[in-house]
Design a protein that fits this description.
By secondary structure, the protein is mainly α. It has one domain: Hypothetical protein, domain 2 (Endonuclease III, domain 1, Orthogonal Bundle), CATH 1.10.340. The chain has helices at residues 12-20, 29-42, 47-60, 66-69, 74-81, 90-110, 113-118, 141-152, 160-169; strands at residues 126-127, 173-174. It has a two-stranded parallel sheet. Helix 2 crosses helix 3 (47-60) and helix 2 runs antiparallel to helix 6. The radius of gyration is 17 Å and the shape is globular.
């Protein structure tokens, strides 16, 4: 049996997410936006709730196409608020639209959102060596800094805790604990 991080349950969905996505560096803007949306809706809820509804979100939010989301009409907002398959939170839905618009603005200014967000870590993941769940922070000085920068640009639902969870999800930080088979020191060595 694989030893996983403390937060992983026996849910196959959760295990698959942990084993194949969490902490893996993401540089693709479409995927970065997807995680930003999912983290926004996760605020105040459990991550497994979001994972269970991920495909519903994908359908409701046009495959997380930020260009479409940026120009959502009031009728689209109303249909999302009536969609029982997702989390129907008006503030989070409206924030997703605003964040899509700002995401595009950052792409225009920096060439890609990826270049912008990864510049905070010099385009290289931070590998942490945490022993236990007590060691893993909810926020860091860096997540505070990124949160302030995003808020200054007008992003919504980007508090430091959410930003740190986003950083973990997209692999800007690798917080697999030392006893987890996904921790970088536990990875099999590849022959050159």
């Amino acid at each position: 049996m694989k030893n996983r991080c403390f937060w992983v349950t026996d849910s196959p969905l959760y295990q698959n997410y942990h084993d194949n996505e969490w902490g893996v560096p993401v540089f693709d803007d479409a995927t970065l936006f997807e995680f930003l949306v999912l983290e926004t809706f996760q605020a105040g809820l459990s991550w497994i709730t979001i994972l269970n509804k991920r495909e519903n979100f994908r359908i409701a939010f046009d495959q997380f196409d930020y260009k479409k989301i940026a120009i959502y009409s009031e009728s689209k907002v109303a249909s999302l608020l009536n969609d029982k398959a997702i989390i129907r939170n008006k503030l989070k839905i409206r924030s997703t639209i605003i964040n899509a618009q700002l995401f595009i603005a950052i792409q225009n200014d920096y060439g890609s959102f990826s270049k912008y967000i990864w510049s905070f870590v010099d385009h290289k993941p931070i590998i942490n060596n945490f022993q236990s769940k007590q060691d893993v922070p909810a926020t860091t000085g860096l997540s505070d800094q990124i949160s302030r920068a995003l808020k200054k640009k007008g992003f919504k639902f980007v508090g430091s805790t959410l930003v740190y969870a986003f950083m973990q999800a997209i692999g800007m930080v690798n917080d697999h604990t030392m006893d987890c088979f996904k921790h970088i020191n536990n990875a099999p060595i590849k022959d050159s």
